[in-house]
Amino acid sequence: MSCARLGLSLLLLAALGWAEDERGSEDSAHPKREGPGHSHWSYADKAQWQSSFPDCGGQRQSPIDIDTNSTVFGHELQPIVLAGYNLDPSERLSLRNNGHTVVLKLPGSLTIASGYSQEYRAKQLHLHWGSPEGPGSEHTVDGRRYDGELHMVYYNPSYRSFEEAMRQPGGLAVLAAFLQVGPEDNVHYQPLLEQLPEVQEEGKETTVAGFNIKGLLPSNLSRYYRYSGSLTTPPCFQTVNWTVFNQTVLLSQKQILLLESTLQGDDDEALQNNFRLTQSLHGRKVLASFQAAISARQAPLPGDGSPPLTPTPDGATKRSTDRAPRAGAGCSPCADSEKQLGFSLQTAHVLAGLFGVLFAVTALTFLIYVHKQRSQNRRPASQSKPNVSYTAASMDEQTL
Ligand SMILES: [Zn+2]
Questions:
Q1: Number of Cβ atoms within 10 Å of the Cβ of 257
Q2: Which of 26, 37, 63, 298 has its CA at a distance of 20 to 30 angstroms from the CA of residue 152?
Q3: Is 349 part of the annotated catalytic residue set?
Q4: Ligand 1 centre from 105 Cα, in Å?
Q5: How far is the CA of 174 from the centre of ligand 1 (A)?
Q6: Region 351-374: what's the mean pLDDT?
Q7: Where are the domains of the chain?
Q8: Better-scored residue on pLDDT, 273 or 396
Q9: CATH T-level topology, domain 17-333
Q10: How many whole angstroms separate alpha carbon 350 and alpha carbon 357?
Q11: What are the two backbone dihedrals, phi and then psi, of residue 215, each rounded to the nearest 5 degrees?
Q12: Percentage of the chain with pLDDT > 90?
């Protein structure tokens, strides 16, 4: 059954403004104008950010591509625990189009109570997206870009203000979640999305009634990647403790299109593709709170959770292959892939069994054939066969 094992092995191998502008929510920190309709920086001149904001050329920049096979399991990484997120509708939250993204201010009463070595206090959340032509998450996983990305921005309250914290090592934390097209509307995003037309133009602001902010995040807050990085927009301060959740958040195609098509940025142009390209790791390690890596030394087990994702080209030139609605709520690259891996393993077992049986039958048939030929060859010449017939060569046959 070595063939069966080989088949199984092959199948397993096959299976296998951030706070950024985050700071844009702060009028005092909002990019200054160079002229009418022109903000201080734009996604069109990403390559030039460094000349005005030196940190953008640093060695601990974000976003990054998360190569799951290079991640290191961090057993100390505990599940993220949030406190104070179910806001009363009487509470009014500011929602603003700052020309780079849409920013929802968050009360400081929202905290990350556990999952970091210290408590963090919420400042704001915002989104990154692509266009109808292509996906627009900032981080990528094994080269794959998702449709969008949510950033919840926090600061270390041991500093006097967000503005001070953003300049200090470890002063900020961002919880990031990938947005992905799913089969139905995500009701948690409705309070936010239905207000987008109200802030269509750059600089417009409105208010949103309090809702359960936690609903914007994935349900599984225990599986995530952690690394040290930066704001993904100027001034690119390298002070962010990043958490990128493994489980994605599903929105309907209609909701994603609304996000991609409603807002305007500079010069009344559509605000699209507001993501920075991935930056080099420069030796940084990316930790995973779960066993994300599958290495040659580490045999994969069902449920071990490494996503057998098919990388798609980066950039906005190609729509994510996951645009098609997918079943299930709160899809996770890993949770899904665990199912896929389980399914693949089942399929692999069945196929391996079939290959094994086919191999055995073929071998048996061949042996019977050889045996028959040898029997015939031993018969007297009187029972002869045609001279020219070809059989396995033997000295006996030569005499026929
Ligand atoms: Zn961001």
A1: 16
A2: 37
A3: no
A4: 13
A5: 8
A6: 58
A7: 17-333
A8: 273
A9: Carbonic Anhydrase II (3.10.200)
A10: 11
A11: -65, -15
A12: 62
